[in-house]
């Protein structure tokens, strides 16, 4: 019994740490987003380009961690606990993928180039759409964490 408890904690205890680190990345993403969305002098193209580049770096890291680390762990938990989580994930995941496309398309708009004032204005128009997609994504991710990970916390602790 002690061995089962140790195995469960080793297997799933790290998931909480992974999620915590990822949520800190989300916070960093929001800081960059809010900093940029508060700008209103579009003539400062060089400074704004740097801010857009930094936002996109954090954005791509966050989205990648979700897809290649967090969701995989949540799906694995759902599979092992076999309590309907896989069906839930199958419904939510395609909606999250739609927000991923919006995020990656936004990132692709920068394309490593210097931006003109007109391009900066266009990106600010797209920034609002990105913000809406991120808000939706965060809600869905929180839902998955709550129903696929937090729901199992008691089972892991008692194993």
UniProtKB/TrEMBL annotation:
Q: Which Gene3D superfamilies match?
A: Regulator of RNA polymerase sigma(70) subunit, domain 4
Keyword Transcription regulation among UniProt keywords: yes
Organism domain of life = Bacteria
Indicate yes or no for the key word Methyltransferase.
Answer: no
Q: Which UniProt keywords apply?
A: Transcription, Transcription regulation
Q: Which InterPro entries match?
A: Rsd/AlgQ_sf, Sigma70_reg_Rsd_AlgQ
Q: NCBIfam families given for it?
A: PRK11718.1
Q: Which family does it belong to?
A: Belongs to the Rsd/AlgQ family.
What name has this protein been given in UniProt? Regulator of sigma D
Query: What is the originating organism of this protein?
Result: Marinobacter pelagius
Q: Which classification does the entry list for the species? A: Bacteria, Pseudomonadati, Pseudomonadota, Gammaproteobacteria, Pseudomonadales
